[in-house]
Write a structure and sequence with these properties.
44% helix, 7-stranded mixed β-sheet, alpha/beta, Rossmann fold, 17% strand, 12 strands
């Protein structure tokens, strides 16, 4: 939950009552109405194919047993095996995971990847577990969901508070169960066990490629602009670094403990060093630096706003106060449908999550292909392939937005739903 502000000029933030699955269904309803989508296809996409709920018993370091609840949702498999991350967070719910799986289905379709969407999670605060407890929990969770995952069935990846080590434990646990190594069961693994070069930076790099494409298309100059980044995990920190390298002044960033702001710009390498040492961006100090909450930094005047934290950050309650010219959604579902309408009327150019943050799943796809071939590519080749796919997807979405006279989110969703609908019609219903 965002830190409450003491500034009376800014409304206090409270835990969002917004249900992510209801947001996803609302988005589907809006796009279906615009497309005049076959009601049967809309109904098909309104229900996940599978929702697995598992209990995850873990022996804690003190010898006690603690039970956590875990989920794995496969939304739609019409275009291929399921693909989607695993998150560890105390706020994980089944409806959140369903929504994230839905967005993954759309995301893979927008990029033209041969996947359906999935997502998984465990309701836990990983910061309160030791490394050994995290490993035992990950292995037990993997064993519980192993009945539906597999290199040709469902391929997990890292997400919020999971990383390459988490994927290594998952791959090893699954491999022990089938009696041989199966590196293709997960992506985002360490290089030593079948991971791909370029994967760690992929989400942030893909987001920046999309921002560059948008600035070129809009005939705006990127160098010298200002950026605000909410969330300084993998995606947010990479975005900050790459934008700074392009001459963008990063004036504010935040993490779960709050944010820092300096009109003169922040030292991004210094921020990254702080995080790598286990600190918070709020530990950053310097002349002219002020502390802000996660909600306050969203409302700063800037050229580029990158929500890179959790869903439902920009809502009908605060969208009118957003001052950015362009929003690039590095997080999944950070903007509600009500906020979309307000931002569109304000002429804010929004790069939706299913386009802007698709770099991670794209390079995950590259990793999966490399694992299946047992042949690995150079990092320069991976980054070039990523840029080519992200640029092509941006062009497709932008042209459709102009053709249909809609915003970029609507255009991306139309493009995705068309592809999924075609696959569903071609495959039919068995039996």
């Amino acid at each position: 939950m965002p830190v409450q502000t003491k500034n009376p000029a800014v409304p206090k933030t409270v835990e969002s009552p917004i249900n992510p699955w209801e947001v996803a269904l609302k988005q589907l309803e809006i796009v279906a109405k615009h497309m005049k989508l076959d009601p049967g296809i809309q109904s098909y996409l309104s229900y996940p194919k599978r929702c697995l709920i598992v209990s995850v018993p873990v022996r804690m370091d003190d010898g006690s047993i603690k039970i956590f609840e875990g989920y794995r949702v496969q939304h739609n498999l019409a275009r291929g095996p399921a693909k989607g991350g695993i998150r560890y967070h105390p706020g994980v719910t089944l409806d959140e995971v369903k929504a994230l799986a839905f967005w993954m289905t759309l995301k893979c379709a927008v990029l033209g990847l041969p996947y359906g969407g999935a997502k998984g999670g465990v309701r836990v605060d990983p910061k309160k577990l030791s490394l050994a407890e995290l490993e035992r929990m990950t292995r037990r969770y993997t064993s519980e969901i192993s009945i539906i995952i597999g290199p040709g069935k469902d391929i997990p990846a890292p997400d919020v508070y999971t990383n390459s080590q988490t994927m290594a434990w998952m791959m090893d646990t699954y491999s022990m169960g089938i009696g041989h190594s199966a590196p293709g069961v997960v992506t985002g693994k360490p290089l030593e066990i079948g991971g791909s070069l370029g994967r760690n930076e992929a989400t942030g790099r893909g987001c920046v490629y999309t921002i560059e494409n948008a600035f070129r298309k809009l005939h705006w100059n990127l160098k010298g602009t200002t950026a605000v980044i909410q969330g300084f995990g993998n995606a947010g920190s990479v975005c900050a670094k790459l934008l700074a390298d392009l001459g963008v002044q990063v004036i504010a960033v935040s993490d779960s403990k709050g944010g820092v702001h300096s009109p003169q710009g922040l030292d991004v390498p210094k921020l990254i060093l702080l995080k790598n040492k286990g600190g918070s961006v709020t530990d950053y100090s310097g002349s002219g630096v002020t502390r802000l909450t996660n909600q306050e930094i969203l409302e700063l005047k800037c050229d580029i706003l990158v929500p890179a934290a959790l869903e439902n950050q920009i809502t009908g309650a605060n969208a009118a106060r957003i001052q950015a010219r362009l929003i690039a959604e590095a997080a999944n579902g950070p903007t509600t449908p009500e906020a979309d309408e307000i931002l569109y009327k304000k002429e804010v150019f929004l790069l939706p999550d299913i386009l802007a943050n698709a770099g991670g799943v794209t390079v995950s796809y590259f990793e999966w292909v490399q694992d299946n071939l047992a042949y690995f590519w150079k990092e320069e080749e991976i980054n070039q392939r990523l840029e080519d796919l992200m640029s092509a997807a941006f062009e497709n979405v932008y042209l459709l937005a102009q053709e249909e006279k809609v915003d970029m989110r609507m255009a991306a969703q139309i493009l995705a739903v068309r592809k999924i609908a075609q696959a569903l019609k071609m495959r039919g219903i068995y039996p």
